[in-house]
Amino acid sequence: MNDKIKLIWKKGDGEMPERVRKNCESAQDELLLMTLDLPTEIINTIRYNADKNAKTVNHYICEIVLNNMVPAP
């Protein structure tokens, strides 16, 4: 096994590279979808719609929640 690991970015290095940011967002999206414990068909629809609207799954779900919130009387 190779003991050499290439460090791409670490906190405090400035702005996160695009490749690293996309990987982090993808991981966050998958964790959110697993946490929601939705049926596979719904998860696939969420992924499709988020991709179609050029948003992360997290942003797409946040938008749905915010648009459907009803203010308390």
Topology:
Blueprint: H1 18-36, H2 40-52, H3 57-67
Helix pairs in contact: 2-3
Strand content: under 5%
| Shape designation | elongated
Uncertain stretches of 5 or more adjacent residues: none
The separation of the N and C termini measures 62 Å
**Category by helix and strand content:** mainly alpha
Task: Describe the structure using short key phrases.
59% helix, 0% strand, mainly alpha, 73 residues, 3 helices
Question: Could you give a quick summary of the protein structure above?
Answer:
This protein is an all-alpha fold. The chain is built from three helices and no strands. The longest helix has 19 residues, at 18-36.
Describe this structure in words.
The chain is mainly alpha-helical and 73 residues long. It has a domain at 38-66. Helix content is 59%, strand content 0%. The protein is built from three helices and no strands. It has helices at residues 18-36, 40-52, 57-67. Helix 2 packs across helix 3 (57-67). The longest helix is centred in the middle third of the chain and has 19 residues, at 18-36. It is elongated. The mean pLDDT is 85.
